[in-house]
Amino acid sequence: MRMKKMSAVYMGLFCMLCTVSMADVLVPYLPAYIHGSSWWQPKPGVSWQWQLSGTLDTDLDVDMYDVDLFDTSASMISLLKSQGKKVICYMSAGSWENYRDDANVFPEEVLGKYLDGWPDERWLDISRIDILGPIMLRRMDLAVEKGCDGIEPDNIDGYSNDSGFALTSEEQLTYNRWLAEAAHARNLSIGLKNDLDQVQDLVSYFDWALNEQCFQYDECDLLLPFVQAGKAVFGVEYSLSTTTFCSQANSMNFDWLKKNLSLDSWRVSCR
Questions:
Q1: 246 phi, psi to nearest 5 deg
Q2: Overall domain count for the chain
Q3: Which of 58, 103, 106, 232 is the most buried (most CB within 10 A)?
Q4: pLDDT digits (tens, 9 = 90+) for 106-136
Q5: Domain for residue 115, yes or no?
Q6: What is the maximum alpha-carbon separation in the chain?
Q7: d(CA 128, CA 171)
Q8: 34 belongs to a structural domain
Q9: 207 and 42 Cβ atoms separated by less than 8 Å
Q10: How high is the pLDDT of residue 26?
Q11: 189-198 residue pLDDT tens
């Protein structure tokens, strides 16, 4: 069926909308709780703890805790902050976890293959910001409600994995930048989790980086743009001994830990 002839004004508006992505549509409506760039922007040299399992050990003399968004209560976050600590809240932004409170709001069409080694998680189709955007915004709002100073969005490198979707690097960049803008609109600090091949394109959007096992896989040089920009690089090794990586981590001005894979309370700091 042929379309009716559009007016010049309507045609102009229609064509303008054709060039606007869903990410562009969502971002202007992100609530800015606090105006200005007052969110936490750590420099290298921050002491920290990353604990996502077990009873939280709140007695460590560190500057920052990275804890689970869903499992950590607002009162626990308040306790840590009363001790002068920054609190980062972990959330997966690129995978579906079947045990989360909001697992049932993800439609099947955005659920891909299971993550290798993680039978409770499936990759998300991050090209569908129209679907995932509102879900992730609610998670960030929860972080604000609980008093988190920032978020650690995990699994934001689906394009380089066997996700079950034909994701492109550009789609990943669009999604990751959108996450950063959404976090900042809520006055939340945000870190780039892994995704090493896109560091150069994303370092200006993220406030810090968090990496797993770059010394084991000999790819830590890819994180140097963060340090060169005066931004902290946090990281962990699971298998290597501290004598293997700590001196190099310190010389690169990285803030590195030795941790158990379960990310319980045990830690050894290189600093």
A1: -65, -45
A2: 1
A3: 232
A4: 999 999 999 999 999 999 999 999 999 999 9
A5: yes
A6: 73
A7: 9
A8: no
A9: yes
A10: 54
A11: 999 999 999 9
